[in-house]
Amino acid sequence: MPYITSPQDGASLFYIDYRPSTQVTFQPDPDSIARNKDKTLFFIHGWPMSGRMYENLMLPLSQTHGIRCIASDRRGFGKSEWQGPEPAEVTYDTFAEDTLAIIKSVKDLGDFTFVASSMGCGESLLVYELMKEHGLEQQVQGFIWMGPSLPYPLKTAFSPHAPPQELWDMILDGFRQDRTAFVKASIGGVFGTQHGIEMSETAQEFFIDLVKQADAIAIERCCQILSNYDFNEKLKSFGSSKSDGVKLTVLHGGKDQSMPLEASSEPIKSHIPDVDLKIYENAAHGLYHTAASEVMKDILAQLN
């Protein structure tokens, strides 16, 4: 899989590119392949995972449904470096600039739809703003957000249902003290196993391993960056200025305790009235895995 060099500081950035095969594939859907010819999805992962968190979606979407699937590793996660030989302060805008650099470098990339989860949703919005500045926004056909960490994932008088500072501090302390033990103890909460949502131990181990691969400073700095960025005005601007042809679908787990519906998708709906909000009652923050079949149906529905 390919790497690029970040034009910001020279960091090595990795991305996955699953192209539909022209040969025999496993469980092909000829009708879906015909409908989705030349369509592309660009996945942006949540914190503190990597692009591999979407494997169970990307593989069937590319090989069964004929959709090109690209997924970036945010700097410091997966196979991407946190900083390059000319380091500078890393911000949300840094992540967006990195993603834009990947978009510009991907061979034969035409129009595409963003698929993002958690922190990745805000990143996709910032990338779209950058693309407008570069006259590239026509490439973006739409957005599919899952459990977005938007508009402001920190409890205040204006966002009373968001996670409090004490919770973020507890998370950071857990990572500092014993990352592996903390992730093992808390990973079930991301996927809602405490609510009876089924997830195998081997699947939990897969996601634990993704978190273990991340750079320690990337985990801590990204947590600070995402929990201290207010997207309210950007969401309002996006809602009032986006083209009618750019569709936004938001998928949210009804049992999401990481970023509750009241703190996230409901305020997004107030800022962007034409958003297609779908609530998965028996899912939590990690609906991309535990409700993968429903998520895939909603992705395909938006594309078609």
Automatic annotation (TrEMBL):
Residue ranges the record marks as coiled coil: none
SUPFAM superfamilies linked to this entry: alpha/beta-Hydrolases
Alphabetical list of InterPro entries matching this protein: AB_hydrolase_1 (IPR000073), AB_hydrolase_fold (IPR029058), AB_hydrolase_sf (IPR050266)
A Pfam cross-reference name: Abhydrolase_1
GO molecular function: hydrolase activity
Domain of life: Eukaryota
Gene3D superfamilies: alpha/beta hydrolase (3.40.50.1820)
Listed GO CC annotations: membrane
AB hydrolase-1 domain location: 40-290
UniProt entry keywords in alphabetical sequence: Hydrolase
Protein name per Swiss-Prot or TrEMBL: AB hydrolase-1 domain-containing protein
Organism: Knufia fluminis
